[in-house]
Amino acid sequence: MISDQITGPGPTMGTVPVNSSAAGTYEIPAQAEAALEKLTAQFPEIFFEARRFRDELTVYVARENIVAVAQFLRDGEGLHYNYLADLTGNDWPDRDPRFEVIYQLYSLDHHTRLRLKVRIPENDCTCPSVTGVWGTANWHEREVFDMFGITFSGHPDLRRILMPVEWQGHPLRQDYAIGWEEPEFTVRKVHRDYAKG
Amino acid sequence: MSRNAMAAASTLTDRVTLERLVEGDHAPGDSERMIINMGPQHPSTHGVLRLVLELDGETVTKAEPVIGYLHTGMEKTMQSKTYQQAIVVTDRFDYTNVMGNNLVYCLAVEKLLGAEIPERAQVLRVIVTELGRLSAHLVWLGTHALDLGAMTVYFYCFREREMIMDMFDIICGARLTASYMRVGGLVSDAPPQFFTNLKDFLEIIDERINEYDYVFNNEIFRRRTQGIGMISQEELIDLAVSGPVLRAAGINYDVRKANPYSGYENYEFDIPLGTNGDVYDRYLVRVEEMRQSARILRQALKNLPDGPVRCADRKISLPPRVELANSMEAVIHHFKLITEGFHPPKNQEVYVACESPKGEIGFYVASDGGNTPYRCHLRGPSFVNLQSLPKMLEGRMLADVVAIIGSIDIVLGEVDR
Known about the structure:
The complex is a heterodimer of chains A (197) and B (417). Chain A has a single domain, classed as NADH:ubiquinone oxidoreductase Nqo5 subunit (Beta Polymerase, domain 2, 2-Layer Sandwich). Helices cover 24% and strands 21% of the residues of chain A. Chain A is built from 5 helices and 7 strands. Chain A has helices spanning 20-24, 30-42, 66-75, 137-148, 189-196, and strands at residues 49-53, 56-61, 83-91, 99-106, 113-120, 126-128, 151-153. Chain B is mainly alpha-helical and 417 residues long. Chain B has one domain: Cytochrome-c3 Hydrogenase, chain B, CATH 1.10.645. In chain B, the strands form 3 sheets. Chain B has a 3-stranded antiparallel beta sheet with strand order 1-2-3. The interface between A and B is large, with 50 and 54 residues.
């Protein structure tokens, strides 16, 4: 079960009330809604959980289906999400599938956006690669591997990209603390040990 | 490649044939390959980009960018600061487009909050962002010319860039790391001196752009840049390349037109498109973009409305200084905002894209209901565009490498983050 509380704003302590007049101007683009309908029609056996916030539509895709869904969204009739604007990850240590891989799709035809999300459990931290669908995913997936430790099966060249090759750990995980200097500057060791406690 | 062949390569078909010729000359295994490191300390890699080049004679057979030398974990840093504090980190991403970085981050957080921004603040945001675009293109033009051995253009460009830096200094007290924007508006209104300087600048800039073109766009430059660095439209879309590199190949995608933000739909401007997608077309597109930026600036200056520059919601924006002396409520709001900040809706996320001088700059912000961003991610156009570099280099001459790197216009602060 997913411990993902998905509706409504959070507790009111200091929370900004959402300005209703401004929030009312946001509208989910019809193309994105149509894409969701087409997805449901194409894959009747799969349930696509959808979330709407402002003018953005997020569709959750099960890990094993992501490549087929991506391929369909790129090539399907009237869909044409041919431009993968961004791919990144997120880490929620308190949730059960701990990690998320987030795909920001864009269409150069009808100029609307759609977000796909894949949940990745911690004990099997791997996700199928979409480099075969969008070539740009190559470096993005390397970055997610580098920063979150999620491996992408089928990736042609999965290596660290921003951190040094011999680096241990994945810096953008939430349990990777900041506050001391980690690199191989041994002069800082005293300070580092002190900060670690 | 002989000089005659170069001169003949005036049309696209000729250029494609030429590319095949170069490829055909070097069948695999007919000579010894050499691997050289270009960078990370090389004046024309624009920072600390390292390129591993495999050469066959003078022809590049394989190229691989190695990045990360400037990685400082800026996304992680942003996640440890409150939403307003994180703005200073965005200055350091693409340091030639500071205002644009501020803008995309502020727009993302404002969308998360549902905040409404006053009109004057929006127009001022457009003014400083377009000034930033001009400044970034001037840096690009100057350094690109320097890479190709033309030194004069560099001094000309930096002369005008200095005027923009002075304007930034007047408007926010910093030349480079501006941090002029805040979530909910701007840090302060622009002083009258700013508008005087802006008018002076707009009087000369069109003529100066013609001057750069006159000095730089000569036979030597054209021969060095025409017909190199091209890749097909399909490959550009597959690699999600954006900005002038994409538009030089004839694909009409500019976020300002496709998904207008900050009132860009109210301005009249054109999106210049190239035809061949070579280094020369990228130059033409950028120079025309500078003229269009000046056009937007004139319209914005003419239609600048009066009014506040911060949103009225006291849970987001600080109260005006004068109110603090008279209103207890203002003091409380001020105290809460400074010590704690604000809390966007829980478990929500947004992705906002803007057009930076390099291409589509996007910000993904996810909130867990706390006063710091739970996840901040920058979609840097330099990072994504750099991925297309090997395809542009392979089969080209070593001397073209510098011209092609310059034409993508990367900033390593944004690539490595």
